[in-house]
Amino acid sequence: MTSFGPQIEVAIARVRADVARLHGELTRYGLVVWTGGNVSGRVPGADLFVIKPSGVSYDELAPENMILCDLDGAVIPGTPGSERAPSSDTAAHAYVYRNMPEVGGVVHTHSTYATAWAARGEEIPCVITAMADEFGGPIPIGPFAIIGDDSIGRGIVETLTGHRSRAVLMQNHGPFTIGANAKDAVKAAVMVEDVARTVHLAREAGPLIPIAQEAIDRLYDRYQNVYGQSIDSRRPAPN
Amino acid sequence: MTSFGPQIEVAIARVRADVARLHGELTRYGLVVWTGGNVSGRVPGADLFVIKPSGVSYDELAPENMILCDLDGAVIPGTPGSERAPSSDTAAHAYVYRNMPEVGGVVHTHSTYATAWAARGEEIPCVITAMADEFGGPIPIGPFAIIGDDSIGRGIVETLTGHRSRAVLMQNHGPFTIGANAKDAVKAAVMVEDVARTVHLAREAGPLIPIAQEAIDRLYDRYQNVYGQSIDSRRPAPN
Amino acid sequence: MTSFGPQIEVAIARVRADVARLHGELTRYGLVVWTGGNVSGRVPGADLFVIKPSGVSYDELAPENMILCDLDGAVIPGTPGSERAPSSDTAAHAYVYRNMPEVGGVVHTHSTYATAWAARGEEIPCVITAMADEFGGPIPIGPFAIIGDDSIGRGIVETLTGHRSRAVLMQNHGPFTIGANAKDAVKAAVMVEDVARTVHLAREAGPLIPIAQEAIDRLYDRYQNVYGQSIDSRRPAPN
Amino acid sequence: MTSFGPQIEVAIARVRADVARLHGELTRYGLVVWTGGNVSGRVPGADLFVIKPSGVSYDELAPENMILCDLDGAVIPGTPGSERAPSSDTAAHAYVYRNMPEVGGVVHTHSTYATAWAARGEEIPCVITAMADEFGGPIPIGPFAIIGDDSIGRGIVETLTGHRSRAVLMQNHGPFTIGANAKDAVKAAVMVEDVARTVHLAREAGPLIPIAQEAIDRLYDRYQNVYGQSIDSRRPAPN
C-alpha cells in the first residue's frame, strides 16, 4: 500500500470525497449522460490529483473508487481504485495541472449547449451580466484536438492562459473548465452550460445587445472580489 | 440579541420560514443554478425584510440562515444569519421595499428564457391567455443597470410603477418580480419564465396571433378578482 | 351530507382517487406550473363529474379535496371539498360532459409546445407515426374564446365532434383533451405535448416528410384496436 | 410451466432482470413518455429473447412481467408474463435477432430530437467527437415502414448491416438501436438522443465544422478498443 505521510493522506481523502461528491452536480444539472464527463481535483501540497475512473456509472462514484494519479497522469499503484483505468481524459487533466500551477480542479463534459457552440467553433459573446460576473468576457474556443497525445491539454492551457474565462470550448468536442479547486471548476462547468443555453436562445430570436467592455470589467472585478462568503473565489476576498 | 417585541418576532419567524421554503420553488422549476437567484419577503408591520445569504447552496437554506435587513438593506446585527453577507442583490430589493409600499415580496433569477428576452432588450408580447390572466399585458424591459448603487432598484421601480406586470426583465440581466408577499413574487417568477419560454417557441415557428386589448383586460380583471381560493391575489377577492 | 346510494358512492370514490392521482402525471411530465392545469372525470352511472379545486397546490391534491359537480358545473353541496371553489375551467369541462356523452375524462393544461402552436393558431401536422397511432391525423385548432360563458366548452365540442383527435389546441390558450376516462384524457394531454414538441423541433430544422393518408388510417385503426392490454382504448379490443 | 434446463433458466432470469431494470434508464433520460418505448435482450445460448409487455406503465416493469419470446416473436406459453401481450414492436425486435446474430439487445424509443431528424428523413452528420467515438460516423435513416409485417425489422437490418452506427432513425417514426447486449443498446439509445439534440441545436445557430474522416476513424477505433472498463464494448478489449 503506497503511503504519502499522514498530512498528505488527509488531503487525499478530502479530495477523493470532494471529487466523488461533485460528480453528483454534473448529473443534477444535466451536464452528462451515461458515464460521460469527469471531475478531477489537485491534492494540495503534493504532485498528485484525483480523477474519476473510466466508463463507470454515476451511481458507483464513491470516494474509494476515485483514482489517484501523479502529474503525468500515471495511476499510483497500490492505492484505492488503482485496479481500474482512470478517465480517458486523464492526460488532458494532467497536462493542465503540470502547466497551470494555480489550477486546483478540472472538469470536462459534453454538455448540450456548450458543445453546440463548440461544433460551430464559435465563441460565446458576453451579453448577460451573469457571464461578465463569472467569466469576465466571452467563452473562447480551443483548437480541434483528439485524444491520444498532449494536444487536448495543450489546447486548453494555450487558450486559457492569460484569459479571464475559466471555461474553454474545445472545437467539435465540448467544454473543459478549470478552477481554484474541484468545486470551483464544477461551478464553471454548470455556469458555462447555463450561459451557452441562454445566449443560444437569445440570439436565435433576434439581435443581441452588447454589454460595454467597461461594464464587463466592473462586473468581473466586483464579483471576483466581493460575491459570496469568500470560499470559492479564485482570489482572496478583500477582508 | 436584537429583539423587536413578540408580535414582530412572530412575523419575522413566519417570513424567515416562507422565504427559506420558497427558494425550493426556484430549484423545482429550474429557474436557478448553483447559488444564483434570491427571494425576499417584507416583515408585515415593520420596516424590515428577510433575504437569502450571498453565495450559499440551495441545500443550506434553513430559516435561521436567512438574513434580516432594514429597508436600507443593512443587516440587523445580532439576529440569526447576521454573521453572513446578504445576497449581492440586497440593495435592489431594499430600494423596491422603500419605494413600493404595496410590495411584500421580491424575487430575482437569471431564468433561461426570460434572460434571453432581456439580452435582446425585447418585451414579451401578450399572446397567450395565461399571460393576460397573470400579467395583464406584455412583460416590460427595464434599463441596463449594474450592481454597485441604486440603479437596479430604481430601474425596477420606474418600470413597474403603474404597470400591471409584476415582472420586469432588466436588460442584459434577467427578471425581477414583485408581489403582495414572497409567495406571490415567486409565483410571478415561475410564470414569467413559463410565458417567456412559450412565446419564444411560438414566435420562432411563425407569426403570432395577437389578443385584442379588450380581451386582455377582461381576462386580467377576472383573474385578479375571482381566481383561486383568494389567498394570493393582490386585491381582496369579491367573496 | 348529500348521498347518492352505495353504488354511486363507490364510483365517486374511485373517480376522486383517479382524478387526484392523475394530477401527478401532469407534474411528472412537466405539463403544468404552479397551480395551473386541471383533470376531471365523469362518474359512471350518474350525471356527475369530479374536478380539481381552483388555485390549490399540486402537493395538496388528495381525493377528499377534489370537488364533485353536476353536469352544469355546480358544486354538489355537503360533499367533501365542496367548501372550495372548483377549477376556473369547470364550465368548459361541464359543457363537454353535457354534449359528448362518450367522454369520461377531460384535461386542460398550458403545456409549453402545444400552447406555442395555439399562439399561432396552427394545427400540428401528422408527420410521425406515434401521432397517427394516437390521434389519427393532425391536432386541430379551436376558436379563440375566453372564460366567462360557454364559449370555451362550445369551441372544444364543435372542434372535436366527429374528429379523430382527442386533443384540441384552443387558440392563444392551450390544449384541452378528452378520453374514455380521466386516465385516457391525461394520456392524450401527455402525448399532445410530446408530438407538439417533436414536430416543432423537426420543422424548425427543415422540410417535413408527410405520411400518406392511407398509412395514417392503417396506423390509427391498428392502434385503437390492438395496442396495449385493452384497458385504455376508446373502443373494445377485438377479442 | 415451460422449462429450458437450469443453465438457460439462469440466463433467462438474468436477462429478465436486466431488461426490467434498463427500462428505468429510458425514463431517467427522458426518452419515453407514458408506456412508449421498449427494451429487449437476447438470452445467451438459446433462441429466445425477453421484451417489455405492451402498454404497461413504467412503474410496473418487474422482471416477472417481462415476456419471453422465441425468435419469431411468439410468446413462450406457461412462462411468467405470458398472459400479457408483448410490445407491439416485438416483430421488429425478433427480425433483428433472427438476422443479426451478433446483436444481443434492441431498444426502440420515440425520443424527441432523434424523432425530429426522422420526421425530416435526414441523417445526423458526425460533427462532435463523442459521436465519432460512439457511432463512428453519421446516424443513418431507415425506410418508412409501418407495423404489421416484417418491414420495420427488415429496414433496421438492411440499414445497420455493415454500418458502424448502432442506431438507425426509421423515417417518420423514431430511433431503433442495437448492441452486444440490452445495456449496450440502451446506451446507444441514450447517446443517439444526446447527439441528435446537440447537433440539432448546433446547426440551427450556424454552419457546422465537419470532422475529417481520418479523425473520425481514429476516434472510433480508439473508443471501441480502449474506453471504459471493457465490459460494454462490442469487441473484446485489447488485453
UniProtKB/TrEMBL annotation, chains A, B, C, D:
Its EC number is 5.1.3.4. It catalyses: L-ribulose 5-phosphate = D-xylulose 5-phosphate. Residues 17-200 form the Class II aldolase/adducin N-terminal domain. Belongs to the aldolase class II family. AraD/FucA subfamily. Its cofactor is Zn(2+). This is L-ribulose-5-phosphate 4-epimerase. Keywords: Metal-binding, Zinc. It comes from Agromyces aurantiacus.
